[in-house]
Design a protein that fits this description.
Length: about 190
């Protein structure tokens, strides 16, 4: 089964709602891949022994791992943390998240500066490239358990938009331009 993704509507309703456009415009795995977003479907029930996860970690150099339980009952200042996660930002490193339980939404900007909503559920592992504008929120279930992976020591620094002069952002835009052969407007 492929990951579910679509172009978001422009309403300001609760971010935990799906925000399908009318009509819904599905975004394919290939379209996400063009933006540098990578995806695997794994077995979340046996992540400690999952050979495919081990291969991904070894091939990409992910030597640090931790787990994050997000729910109102498990996180202090839950609403504030969720609001911070939902603020549009970039990182200077990849963001690697493996959903073990529950579900939530990663939103990324497409080449036209539109939001694409990616619905992650148990078994979904996604990698967002350094420099891509994104944000995260839970869905209406209000619960997700995520594995976070890093190369070396974990860095959680978010750089809120605008970040057009950030070296990671410049490198990301350069990579998109080289793939498409068309200069992109800053987004």
């Amino acid at each position: 089964m492929a990951i579910e993704a679509w172009l978001m509507d422009d309403t300001n309703e609760d971010p935990r709602l799906p925000h399908h456009g009318n009509p819904t415009e599905i975004v394919s795995s290939d379209q996400l891949s063009e933006l540098g977003v990578l995806y695997w479907k794994l077995n979340p029930n046996d992540y400690e022994n999952d050979q495919e996860l081990r291969k991904i970690r070894e091939a990409r150099g992910y030597n640090y791992m931790d787990l994050l339980d997000l729910s109102p009952e498990k996180v202090e200042n839950y609403e504030e943390k969720l609001k911070n996660f939902y603020t549009e930002h970039i990182h200077q490193d990849e963001e690697i998240r493996y959903c073990l339980e529950g579900s939530g939404y990663f939103d990324v900007r497409d080449k036209g500066d539109r939001w694409i909503r990616i619905w992650i559920k148990a078994g979904d592992l996604i990698i967002l490239p350094a420099g891509i504008y994104h944000r995260f929120t839970l869905d209406a279930s209000n619960y997700v358990k995520l594995m976070r992976l890093f190369i070396g020591e974990p860095v959680w620094t978010a750089y809120n938009r605008p970040q057009e002069d950030n070296p990671a952002r410049k490198e990301y835009i350069k990579g998109l331009t080289e793939k498409t052969g068309v200069p992109l407007a800053a987004h």
